Amino acid sequence: GFSHRIGESPSYPITSRIGGVFGLGLAVAPWSRAAFALGWEHSAVGSEHGAGDLADVDVTRTLDVIWASVRLYIVRTDRVGLFAEVGPGLAIQHADADVLIYPDVGMAPSASRCSASAGPGLGLRAKLGVEARVGGPIWLSLDSVFDHVQTSSAPLGDCVPGAGSLALIGVRLGITYRRDVSRWLR
Fold it and tell me: Residue 70 CA to chain centroid, in angstroms?
């Protein structure tokens, strides 16, 4: 899928707001109208650029989030389902930065690169989606997502300031393999 970053950065102007998303998850549905899920997502959340008299900074940011959620089906048949999902998450933010420092007039600039991570930060997710059976146990799902993740804006090690509060909207396309294990639980 993809995500789009909403709002501003606490440190540098945002130059790119759209990034790709990849994830994996596992869900258990004890009732036909509800499921509990645990999943991991890696999201690119855009880039930032800061220019000043002493330095230029280019930052690329990503998130790794573990989501726990509850899915409630509004409509569910053997072929299609319409659902809403909410849940909390724990996020680790990552930043990769290229820094160009101008020490003084007449002196050559110096370049450096750094990477840093911090967390966990807390997140909250709300999702609406639809799923359809492709064939046998294979289902296709399409959903729209709103995530709010609170990460630190404090410096990430000796690298750059953290991302702070992130609000993301996105679209996810997924493939699901369903297996009914109820006969083994009786």
Answer: 18
pLDDT 10s per residue in the chain (186 long)?
999 999 988 889 999 999 999 999 999 988 889 999 999 999 999 999 988 877 889 999 999 999 999 999 999 999 999 999 999 999 999 999 998 888 777 778 888 899 999 989 999 999 999 999 999 999 999 999 999 999 999 999 888 999 999 999 999 999 999 887 666 655
Q: Which amino acid is at 6?
A: I
One-letter amino acid at 138 equals I
125-137 as b/e: b if 16+ CB within 10 A: bebebebebeeee
In angstroms, rounded to a whole number, what is the distance separating the alpha carbons of residues 55 and 110? 9
Separation between Cα atoms, residue 146 and residue 168, nearest integer Å: 6
DSSP 32-71: TTEEEEEEEEEEEEEEEEEE-SSEEEEEEEEEEEEEEEEE
The distance of Cα 50 from the centroid of its chain, to the nearest Å, equals: 23
- Measure the CA–CA gap between 30 and 71, rounded to whole angstroms: 11
Residue 83 CB contacts under 8 Å (≥ 6 apart), including other chains: 71, 72, 73, 74, 76, 127, 128, 129, 130, 131, 143
Tokens of 154: 């404090």
